[in-house]
Design goal:
The chain is α/β, with parallel strands linked by helices and about 550 residues long. The protein has 17 helices and 11 strands. It is globular.
Length: about 550
């Protein structure tokens, strides 16, 4: 695409943030910085006026905070939350602290006596809020953004008030049935067939663990949940060199071990080499090992590459392997009908993970686990002692604890239900398209810059590149040049993040230190992406000229 010109640099130069902007003394002040109208020094006075004394429950040491006090306190907390979201850009994204700095400001001994709520909320404002890494900041471009949208936050508030344990239908009928409905909405939105059922977990690490436990259970001639793996031939799991580390952690947890996870080589676009996969399976069978599962990734964590899912599904079907698809980040893109080509074949998977808390604007935690073989997942985890049996219902119900390692479960469906209804699928699609367009614009700026180079395709909303001065063009593989480029880009990364205006992270692609800008916050606008590129260029030129 033709690069859109960058916005003009403000008068006075781009390297000097205005007073009160992130990265300046005003922004790092632990008091009440400039910002929205309600963020004024009087906030602490208002808190002291309303909550400066112990309430009845505290004074009597009996019962809970009474409903009217809770109502007033909830209003105050809602104001703090709204003020934070409205003024989050006043903070440097990374707090200027060192390990141990904050611990030293907190008492080591627990409080023996109750403290007024005003003191607690004031300390939240001055100690907690300024010293968090600000994931809600619209210029948070590191890792994969996990931005909690306002309707999702409201859902979390209601979830906390209900305090439901969604482990059995009986322990919360609406939690179970709302989860069934919400899972169905997402499955339809993603374009997957009705054969898929599923549930919510906390993170993709757990979802992948559950999927691979299903693979372990599905191995012919074995009942791993009953008998374990001792004395049996070693199982093998296959994943690309770019697959997430959680796959190896799952293998460690499931008794397969890291040695049981074979990393398959990748091609020039960081995709699994299917011929190498076939060869690895042959080698393992010849050695007496048992191939159990293959993991295909749509949107790897580093370069967001796309494994050839359809070809991998062919191998899995022919070899009798469980196919798990890790689409934790990029799975949200399947909501866009025009962008489903990379997902061809995922409908043949035995299990899939998509994380709503990555790119569907859902507050942590929320991971969507889907499977075509729920009976195998249930066999891997079901254990029902007498005290969990439902004796007065004849109709079969979803007791989700039988499908997971955990017994207790959060009511995650409520925030998802609220969020989907608030935005609607079309509203979510519009925001995803905006992010993809922003990433395309950033990629075009990188491609047009003689002193930079892109190091991976940008199929979704993440751009991987490095600063490579034009004088090094054609010499990138010389050891001294490679070392210098790594040093230069490390310095750029540190300078940009120390400034606090934007936050980017890094990875290594074929051994090269790579800057990585991942766009995914519900609050990100084009100006934030332009700022990230402007600050990277500014610091790159300073350090290259030094």
């Amino acid at each position: 695409m033709t690069p859109t010109p960058l916005p003009p640099t403000p008068a006075g130069g781009s390297s000097s943030p205005a007073a009160g902007a992130p990265g300046t003394a005003d922004a790092s002040d632990s008091g009440a910085p400039a910002g929205p109208a309600s963020l004024v020094d009087g906030t602490d006075d208002a808190l002291r006026s309303a909550f400066g004394m112990l309430d009845t429950a505290q004074s009597s040491a009996h019962g809970d905070m009474d409903p009217e006090t809770f109502r007033r306190a909830a209003h105050a907390v809602a104001d703090l939350m709204a003020d934070y979201l409205a003024g989050v850009e006043r903070f440097p994204i990374l707090p200027d602290v060192e390990p141990g700095d904050l611990r030293r400001r907190l008492p080591a001994a627990p409080p023996e006596q109750p403290e007024p709520l005003a003191d607690i909320l004031s300390e939240y404002r001055h100690l907690v809020e300024p010293n968090i890494t600000h994931w809600q900041h619209p210029a948070f471009f590191a890792y994969f953004a996990s931005s909690g949208s306002a309707p999702g936050v409201l859902g979390e508030m209601l979830t906390a008030a209900l305090a439901a344990n969604a482990m059995l239908w009986r322990t919360s009928p609406i939690a179970t049935e709302l989860e069934e409905i919400t899972i169905g909405w997402l499955r339809r939105g993603l374009g997957l067939p009705e054969a898929f059922d599923g549930f919510f977990t906390d993170t993709a690490s757990t979802s992948s663990l559950i999927g691979l436990a299903g693979a372990r259970q599905a191995v012919d001639g074995a009942d791993a949940s009953r008998d374990g793996l001792a004395g049996r031939p070693a199982l093998r799991i296959y994943a690309s060199e770019e697959a997430h580390s959680s796959i190896e952690k799952a293998a460690m947890t499931l008794g397969i071990g890291r040695a049981g996870t074979r990393r398959i080589p990748i091609d020039g676009q960081y995709r699994m080499d299917v011929d190498a996969l076939r060869a690895a399976i042959r080698e393992d069978r010849a050695a007496g090992h048992v191939p159990a599962a293959v993991v295909a990734t749509i949107g790897t964590t580093g370069p967001t590459s796309i494994d050839p899912v359809a070809a991998i599904a062919d191998v899995a079907e022919r070899e009798g392997l469980w196919l798990h698809v890790d689409a934790a980040y990029a799975g949200a893109t399947a909501l866009l009908p025009e962008r489903r080509d990379p997902f061809a074949g995922w409908e043949r998977a035995d299990s899939i993970v998509v994380n709503p808390h990555k790119w569907l604007f859902t507050p942590l935690d929320a991971s969507l686990f889907l499977t075509r073989r729920p009976e195998v997942i249930r066999a891997a985890f079901s254990l029902v002692p007498e005290y969990l049996r439902t004796l007065d219902r004849e109709r079969e119900v979803h007791d989700y604890n039988e499908y997971t390692p955990q017994l207790g479960r959060r009511f995650r469906a409520l925030k998802m239900w609220m969020l989907l209804r608030y935005f609607g699928l079309e509203g979510i699609r519009a925001r995803l398209r905006e992010h993809i367009e922003m990433a395309g614009q950033l990629a075009a700026w990188v491609d047009a810059e003689p002193d930079a180079e892109r190091l991976a395709p940008a199929p979704f909303s993440t751009v991987c590149f490095r600063w490579r001065p034009a004088r090094y063009l054609g010499r990138e593989d010389e050891p001294a040049v490679r070392e210098e480029l790594d040093r230069l880009n490390t310095a750029i990364l540190e300078a940009v993040n120390r400034e606090g205006l934007v936050f980017v992270s890094h990875t290594r692609l074929r051994g090269r230190l790579t800057l990585r800008v991942a766009i995914g916050s519900v609050r990100t606008e084009a100006r934030h992406v332009a700022l990230a590129w402007e600050r990277i260029r500014e610091h790159a030129r300073r350090r290259d000229e030094a």
